[in-house]
Amino acid sequence: ILNVEQSPQSLHVQEGDSTNFTCSFPSSNFYALHWYRWETAKSPEALFVMTLNGDEKKKGRISATLNTKEGYSYLYIKGSQPEDSATYLCASGVNDMRFGAGTRLTVKP
Amino acid sequence: GAVVSQHPSWVICKSGTSVKIECRSLDFQATTMFWYRQFPKQSLMLMATSNEGSKATYEQGVEKDKFLINHASLTLSTLTVTSAHPEDSSFYICSARPSAGRTEAFFGQGTRLTVV
């Protein structure tokens, strides 16, 4: 994998559903993986920075895992709420962060 | 904490004019700031990295004479789009890193530039 790729591109779920999406990144020369939550007309909000293979981080109902050897990270949202609706971005690197195109999540009440 | 303010949030300018976008870290000092550009439905593309007091490092394919970056203080970086053309119309967003050795970067709100 040469670029950072996210899937799916968009996702529609019902309130209360749990969901997850994927970020794939180059596994060579890995330094850090970032997850951001980006609501329309606001600044992207940093969710997690992960550096260690096997790392798992949690913030409320949102958690993320990291596999640096195979080059992927999963973001999980448990019991989705309408306020979780946003675009979720991942990025690999530090000085030259490379972003995926994002997963646009819509949670219907 | 860790608030980055970007101004303006949107701007419309005429072809041939220059536009300045400011990126300020409000509650921390940022040794490094980053400028990105985003085309519709595409990912954020890094344009340049600016370090306080030194020249910016531009990514391949980004014209440094067209996109002037100044990082004169630890809380302010500016991006000036010179002699703007309609193809420069895009979404520009900055981020700032609190200090060397930290991996987090905090983003401004972005600027929607339309050149007419």
- Strand percentage of chain A, roughly? over 45%
Average pLDDT over all residues of chain A: 94
Low-confidence stretches of chain B: none
| Classification by helices and strands of chain B | mainly beta
Please give a structural write-up.
The complex is a heterodimer of chains A (109) and B (116). By secondary structure, chain A is mostly beta strands. Chain A has no helices and 11 strands. Chain A has strands at residues 5-7, 10-14, 19-24, 33-38, 45-50, 56-59, 62-67, 72-77, 86-92, 98-99, 103-108. In chain A, a hairpin with a 5-residue loop joins β9 (86-92) and β10 (98-99). The mean pLDDT of chain A is 94. Helix content of chain B is 0%, strand content 51%. The radius of gyration of chain B is 13 Å and the shape is globular. The termini of chain B are far apart. The model of chain B has no long low-confidence stretch (mean pLDDT 92). The interface between A and B is medium-sized, with 23 and 23 residues.
